[in-house]
Amino acid sequence: MSENSVGSATASRAERKERTRRALVDGTLDAIADRSFSSVSLREVTRAAGIVPTAFYRHFASMEDLGVAVVEDSMRVLRKILRDVRRHPSADNARESLELLVGEIREHDVQFRFLIRERSGGVVEVRRAIETELRMIVHELTQDLSRIPALSSWPGDDLEMVADLIVNTMLATVVDLVEVTPASAAERDIVERALSQLRVIMLGMGQWQPRNVRGARTSAAALRA
């Protein structure tokens, strides 16, 4: 067999494995549309993926391991949105990001409900995975904020505090949005309230005096630029 043939066969096996792994994750998301992850069985997800139960362990070490993969898959959506809002904290950017958030929630309703439901209960490994992902998002936002010239003098703890406020505001908005009717007055009210909350955070950043800088304050105008 030629090297090209061996390479193609290896790639084909890897592609099949990835398709099966994807099918297991998608099958799990279908199963948890209206119930907890802990209520889903291994046989149920393997049946949905079209494989025998024993083949499950070629892809995941346990159901908890599968749950962590579902968390990572679901978090990609939230990370994408928060990546946009952390590029540069401004009112215009915040509105665009909130509008994007609404669209993504409607398109990925199951993933968002899963994250909300499992964050406060259920399987310990899944809950820990969600918190780990959220800490990573806060860390990434902290790093991005540190690159803004107006915030260059801020200590890391202060930047992390702001990042945590922004992330938690977005999460609270997600919790509210999944419970209301799309394109309703309630949805618009939630978006406007979240926008006001983000603006308050940004105004506060403009007036906040970093703990390692005495007599100097970050320019509010610089943050709005």
Automatic annotation (TrEMBL):
Transmembrane segments: none
Spans annotated as Disordered: 1-20
Biased composition (Polar residues): 1-11
Protein name: AcrR family transcriptional regulator
Domain HTH tetR-type, first and last residues per copy: 18-78
Chain segments annotated as coiled-coil in the UniProt record: none
Keywords assigned: DNA-binding, Transcription, Transcription regulation
DNA-binding region, residue intervals: 41-60
InterPro entries: DesT_TetR_C, Homeodomain-like_sf, HTH_TetR, HTH_transcr_repressor_FabR
PANTHER family attached to this UniProt entry: HTH-TYPE TRANSCRIPTIONAL REPRESSOR FABR
Alphabetical list of SUPFAM superfamilies matching this protein: Homeodomain-like
